[in-house]
Design goal:
This protein has one domain: Jelly Rolls, CATH 2.60.120. With about 140 residues, the chain is an alpha+beta fold. The strands form two sheets. A five-stranded antiparallel sheet has the order 1-8-3-5-6, covered by helices on one side. Strands 2-7-4 form a three-stranded antiparallel sheet.
Length: about 140
């Protein structure tokens, strides 16, 4: 089962995907399985992190930008220096991951959420969620 989601981002945005993905999993009828989330963009990423303090999202983007600053000496400059930095950020952070489905629910910690990280933007973006039923599960 595959679902296509669309979203609009702002520059250096962090967008919660948690509720949409949880609803998809819970509505699927899958009791045991695997949920894979991916985005086909080269200047964005996906992560699981805490949602308790919104300033944590600012810290996350600030640290990613500190580690990979936008600069003009990248060897590739597809569109802009920000775009080039976004490619490196996306490669290091990642564009996909999988989480278990257990007893019909996504297996996340009590303070964890799933987030889309925009490294360029603003943009029209998309991501995909693939659910796989455990053949040995109920």
């Amino acid at each position: 089962m595959l679902k296509h989601f669309k979203l609009q981002t702002a520059e250096r945005d962090v967008v919660s995907l948690t509720e949409d993905i949880k609803a998809f999993v819970e509505g699927s009828g899958i009791r045991e399985g695997l949920c894979t989330i991916c985005t086909p963009h080269t200047t964005a990423g996906l992560t699981v992190t805490s949602f308790w303090d919104p300033n944590g999202f600012l810290d996350l983007q600030d640290e990613i930008c500190r580690l990979i600053p936008t600069r003009i000496d990248f060897k590739h400059q597809h569109d802009t220096p920000q775009d080039a930095a976004g490619h490196v950020k996306s490669s290091l952070i990642g564009v996909s991951f999988s989480l278990p489905i257990h007893e019909g629910k996504l297996l996340l910690g009590h303070s964890q959420g799933i987030y889309f990280l925009e490294f360029d933007g603003p943009r029209n973006r998309e991501y995909f969620v693939k659910l796989i039923r455990d053949p040995d599960g109920p």
